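Exercise 7 asks you to align residues with tokens for two separate proteins.
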Amino acid sequence: MYHQIRHFFSRSRDIILQTRSPKLPLIAEVTGGNFRSFFQKTAAERKQFHLPPFTEMVTIYMSDSSESLVKQRIASTASSLIEAAKGTPKTLVVYDHLLVEKRAGKYRQKILVRTDDMMTFLEPFRTQLVRGRGIEVEWL
């Protein structure tokens, strides 16, 4: 990846970088061409905060035309996942019961799951997640 970005920057004359914080050291490294340092720091941060690729994350979306049904299903699923996470080290399950979005006439809520072994953690829920109507699982 480092070589691909370096190649991209070497072929372009002008690069526009949009940011709210132009004085961040990270921005100075990228604009100064110090990509190796940028990737090393980014990788260290991702490792420290248990983010991919150092752990696995998925977002589970549930949607339906009925807002109350979505809230009921998400609460039930999240409760089961949270309970399962108690016995699994380094596993985090998060959802906001108040946050509901509406897209194309359907209400939608999500659950975020972070763990070191996602397949093992989600195995007991496979039937529910695979066969459930209005359920999407997105690997991050």
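Second protein for Exercise 7:
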Amino acid sequence: MTSIDMEFPQVPQLSRADEIQARRALRHNRLLATGLLALMIVIAIATRFVPSPGWLVHLVRAGAEAGIIGGLADWFAITVLFRYPFGIPLPHTAILPSNKDRIGRSLGSFVERNFLVPEVILPSHGKNSRLASITRDGADGFGLDNYTTETFARRQS
């Protein structure tokens, strides 16, 4: 078994009570965000009907309009990352589900090139640490190609 075929620990699952609490918190935050967006809309409409608006009314209206635009932009940005808005398959939407494998490979490659290099690992862990020896001894410079789970376990003891 190579390091690539290693079995990873199981992802911890939430208990039923924790999942219910997390869903409750999510529902609360969604209601709060929707309520604040509705409040901004009400404020923007209400300030349009002020008979002789002064600078303060214009300031409040501008803030409300900015809140509306920002709220809608944030909602749309998050929505298009994960799904199609309103179920309509628009171009450049549902980005993460359709590209998750490519994003994962790119992220893994980025971490390998920028963080798993001897220049980064050795100064922070010392030259005699186990991590440093794995980094030095590996054929690819990262210490991962020639290591099996058993070899790594022997080095740990």
